């Protein structure tokens, strides 16, 4: 990978900027430090160019960085530039990278802007109930506060590395310190309650929800009232440190949780350092965060990383790697270098996927932990955008079908022809509401969480298969298309016409729901009909004191339950009962929602007749009701056609070569392949092996991610050969 390492010189050259004005940066890396990072990246197998972060930066990057839109692999910026001048200097290079469309390590402009401003940081911490010392802001030395309690520590609000810090215990010294710092740093001054006690620094590496907290470092102060000054930090090796710090297990865990929460609340990325004080009663306070933690060999961040087992080279490459995963969902570490691409695709794909399993799991974690309930349109679209970025990185173009009632539908192609070799179909929505969501977690050989089996595991498998094909240099040989819908929980109510339209342009259609426990590939699935049934008291009885609709509904629900009990060819499920009364009176109207699944169209017709009879039947002694039955046939059943049988035989042959067991499976829950026109070869179940759809126990098997992604890669390539 091409990596541009950006840094700043310690003296502003007038040729580096249009004008010289404002506060110039007091922070920069030495040339030796920059060279050390460059060597570490080169040892990691990357092509590195060191670029000064000045007026010429965009032109330098334009010449060096790959043209991803032309199909080249992406490059990255390793940002070591603190900015040249002005306030919020940390934001300058990240903001330029955002504008230029170049991925970079570290936090974005918003995160840097908040964290560089110590006052804003403390406000955010307070709003999120994260302990931080009390504070006051001085714009002039004459400012006064009735609630100020000494001793306090005085520091400029927009600087770091302990610049200008001074502890004072009276108003005269405070005003003098504020006056000096305003003149020196040209900014407001933060006056903070001084916490006497122990001091700690905690390094963070990774991104939410997988943030790795490095071993805690204690700054060994001579006494609880000492502070660590900038001159202390510049001494050889800095202040003496202890790592891991001597803390109780409970206190260390409390500190780690505070760090993770602060990192997430402040919107930081990739790596950071959090500074703490702990008073004599062991109360913890976050002093500040550094969104560009020092990568110097004498800093606490590297000191903690060493304790965690990193070398300097591996730490630098790890920081790059977590940024790459954040952008593209997969690692670029050089574990791929030893793979022999002349081997069969199944061998190359499996080797690649095994080396990237952790990355795929982290991708899946992010998918699962995002609540994409069918009516949570914002989150559904966020997941679509996330996957879109990954697919564009793989060379796919995007077409969005914008929706209003549900999230947008996404259609992707990696070619420009009218016909696809293969169409992959999956969905972004789930039926889990905010109170039902089960977060990603692992238990023995299983990965559990909402949507793991039904859709999100399949999306991770798809990305793994496509990455493996690209690595094997096979992806461009496949005319591949992908349709992601957002209304599966509604039975494909709005998307069925798009499934039909894009299926007609494709030779093969694959669904990404999970395989059954025995490895089943879905060759048939049940149809689905939704019913909305409204009961209303008749006009002559609406004013009477009837117990009304509730007893009637109870009898009808009992009849429905008996109808589907022990029945294998169809199922009925009540999903909603709403009963209300006009003007606060006894309920006199109600709405009942049913979802029905049936094996064949004939069973669906029979079931419909029975539902009509049950709902319209009037029991003796019951009030007369008007019954309105609205049937929405959302998906027809799928029966195995000769084209499906032939396609399954192709998949079965590939599975044998992979030494993976598969079998035909009939699925009770309907699928998007229900809307694929007859005679087109369509199969579902190419996601990981899973079970317990739409329940708190929903899971997939850990190792099946690799197996099914490797099989999917082979099937996609075979579809292009046929």
Automatic annotation (TrEMBL):
GO molecular function, one term: hydrolase activity
KW Acetylation (keyword) present: no
Protein's UniProt keywords contain Ligase: yes
UniProt cross-references to PROSITE patterns, sorted A to Z: ATP_GRASP
UniProt xrefs under SUPFAM superfamilies: Glutathione synthetase ATP-binding domain-like (SSF56059), PreATP-grasp domain (SSF52440), Zn-dependent exopeptidases (SSF53187)
BP-aspect Gene Ontology terms: cell wall organization
Superkingdom of origin organism: Archaea
Pfam families according to UniProt: Dala_Dala_lig_C, Peptidase_M20
Keyword field: ATP-binding, Cell wall biogenesis/degradation, Ligase, Nucleotide-binding
InterPro entries, alphabetized: ATP-grasp, ATP_grasp_subdomain_1, Dala_Dala_lig_C, Peptidase_M20, PreATP-grasp_dom_sf
Residues of the ATP-grasp domain: 122-321
Family: Belongs to the D-alanine--D-alanine ligase family.
Name of the protein this chain belongs to: D-alanine--D-alanine ligase
Organism, as annotated: Nitrosopumilus ureiphilus
Lineage: Archaea, Nitrososphaerota, Nitrososphaeria, Nitrosopumilales, Nitrosopumilaceae
């Amino acid at each position: 990978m091409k990596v541009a390492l950006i840094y700043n010189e310690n003296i502003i050259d007038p040729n580096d900027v249009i004008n010289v004005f404002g506060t110039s940066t007091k922070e920069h890396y030495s040339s030796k430090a920059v060279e050390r990072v460059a060597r570490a990246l080169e040892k990691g197998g990357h092509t590195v160019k060191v670029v000064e972060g000045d007026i010429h930066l965009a032109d330098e990057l334009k010449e060096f960085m790959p043209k991803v839109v032309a199909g080249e692999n992406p490059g990255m910026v390793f940002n070591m530039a603190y900015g040249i001048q002005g306030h919020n200097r940390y934001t300058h290079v990240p903001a330029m990278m955002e504008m230029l469309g170049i991925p970079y390590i570290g936090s974005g402009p918003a995160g840097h802007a908040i964290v560089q401003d110590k006052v804003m940081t403390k406000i955010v911490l307070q709003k999120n109930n994260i302990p931080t010392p009390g504070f006051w802001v001085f714009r002039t030395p004459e400012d006064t506060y009735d609630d100020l309690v000494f001793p306090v520590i005085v520091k400029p609000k927009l600087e770091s590395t302990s610049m200008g810090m001074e502890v004072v215990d009276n108003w005269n010294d405070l005003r003098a310190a504020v006056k000096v710092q305003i003149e020196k740093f040209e900014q407001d001054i933060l006056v903070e309650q001084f916490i006497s006690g122990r001091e700690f620094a905690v390094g963070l590496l990774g991104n939410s929800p997988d943030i790795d907290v490095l071993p805690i470092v204690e700054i060994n102060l001579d006494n609880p009232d000492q502070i660590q000054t900038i001159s202390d930090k510049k001494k050889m090796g800095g202040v003496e440190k202890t790592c891991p710090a001597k803390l109780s297990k409970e206190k260390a865990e409390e500190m780690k949780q505070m760090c993770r929460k602060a990192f997430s609340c402040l919107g930081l990325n990739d790596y950071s350092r959090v500074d703490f004080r702990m008073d004599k009663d062991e109360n913890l306070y976050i002093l500040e965060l550094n969104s560009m933690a020092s990568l110097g060999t004498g800093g606490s961040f590297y000191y903690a990383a060493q304790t965690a087992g990193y070398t300097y080279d591996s730490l630098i490459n790890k920081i790059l790697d977590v940024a790459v995963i954040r952008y593209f969902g997969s690692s670029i570490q050089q574990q791929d270098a030893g793979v022999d691409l002349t081997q069969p695709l199944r061998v190359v794909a499996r080797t690649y996927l095994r080396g990237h399993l952790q990355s795929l799991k982290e991708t899946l974690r992010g998918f699962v932990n995002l609540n994409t309930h069918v009516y949570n349109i914002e989150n559904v679209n966020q997941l679509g955008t996330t996957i879109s970025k990954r697919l564009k990185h793989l060379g796919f173009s995007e077409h969005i079908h914008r929706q209003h009632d549900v999230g947008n539908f996404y259609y992707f192609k990696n070619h420009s022809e009218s016909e696809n070799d293969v169409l992959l179909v999956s969905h972004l929505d789930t039926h889990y509401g905010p109170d039902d969501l089960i977060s990603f977690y692992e238990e023995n050989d299983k990965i559990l969480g909402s949507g793991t089996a039904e859709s999100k595991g399949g999306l991770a498998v798809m990305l793994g298969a496509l990455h493996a094909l690209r690595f094997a240099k096979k992806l461009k040989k496949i005319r591949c298309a992908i349709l992601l819908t957002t209304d599966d929980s509604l039975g494909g109510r709005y998307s069925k016409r798009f499934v039909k339209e894009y299926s007609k342009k494709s030779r093969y259609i694959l669904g990404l729901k999970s395989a059954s426990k025995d490895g089943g590939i879905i060759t048939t699935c049940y149809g689905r009909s939704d019913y909305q049934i409204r009961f209303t008291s008749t006009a002559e009885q609406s004013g009477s004191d009837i117990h009304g609709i509730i007893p009637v509904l109870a009898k009808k629900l009992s009849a429905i339950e008996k109808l589907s009990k022990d029945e294998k060819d169809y199922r009925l499920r009540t999903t909603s009962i709403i009963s209300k009364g006009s003007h606060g009176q006894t309920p006199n109207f109600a709405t009942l929602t049913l979802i029905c699944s049936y094996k064949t169209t004939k069973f669906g017709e029979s079931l419909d007749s029975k539902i009509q009879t049950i709902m319209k039947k009037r029991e003796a002694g019951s009030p007369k009701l008007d019954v309105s039955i609205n049937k929405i046939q959302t998906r027809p059943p799928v029966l195995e056609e000769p084209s499906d049988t032939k396609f399954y035989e192709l998949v079965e042959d590939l599975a044998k070569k992979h030494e993976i067991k598969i079998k035909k499976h009939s699925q009770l829950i309907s699928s998007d392949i229900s809307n694929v026109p007859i005679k087109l070869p369509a199969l579902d179940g190419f996601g990981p092996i899973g079970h317990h759809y739409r329940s708190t126990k929903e899971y997939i098997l850990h190792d099946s991610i690799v197996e099914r992604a490797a099989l999917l890669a082979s099937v996609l390539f075979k579809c292009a050969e046929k």
